[in-house]
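Quick one: structure for this chain?
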Amino acid sequence: MVIDVEPPRSSAAAARSALSALIRRDLLVLRKNFGEFVGRTVMQPFLLVFVFLYVFPVIGQGVGSAGGTAGESEFATVLVPGVVSIAVMFQGIQSVAIQMSQEFGYTREIEDRVQAPCPIWLVAVARVLSGAVQGVISAVIVLPIAAVVHAPGVHPDLHVHWWIVLTLIPLACVAMTSLGLLLGTTFEPRNIGVMFGFVILPLVFLGGTYYQWTALAPVHIGGFPWLQSLVLLNPLIYISEGMRAGFTDLSHLPLYVIYPVLLAFCVLFLGLGLRNFRRRVLS
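Got it. Here's what it folds into:
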């Protein structure tokens, strides 16, 4: 007698179910630790706008203060989208790179995750997607704070362009969590300080957080705008410029450049990160 037993579901259905379960697990952990999440999300952006947009103008050392409150307000308009960009980037690093480094290190939690009934690469994708959700939440939390914390007379001129905001923020979050996957699978836990010193800090200071890309043109050698060209290698510059396009009417990089380049960074970071992830798991 031949007994033919049909599997209750296909491997693809099992993989989808496992992916959904992994994401739900991460979001459940986020819900249980939401207060801690809000604290680490808000602290740096709040201090940034508090010092630059409140303390400096009050003590007469505001950026753009030569133009009075109008100059300080113009700087505030530049800075607020940059603060949201930093929040998205740091959330991508914290939710994926730091966690991944710990799971490959002393906690060894990754050994439990890869036992899920799905391909190994899908475990990493689940981490990227759940981290992207956290990035979107962080942007929603940080924007109101960055927009209202400022000295009297300093008013950022914000105009929300919803179609840009609703498409750019999710894309930016996936790009940064993909970068987080790449960094988390590249650096050993003992080298996290090196990662922040040689990767994260240059990204932040050359990522258009405090200035517009178009304003870098005067920095040149022999007529060649070397800095304006150099920062185009930085993924954060496209997020910062995209945020300015979404939240202000300031000049910015063309959107037909921002979206394809961000998408290309997503593919690059995710591809390299998945390769490294597989190697680390199987080693």
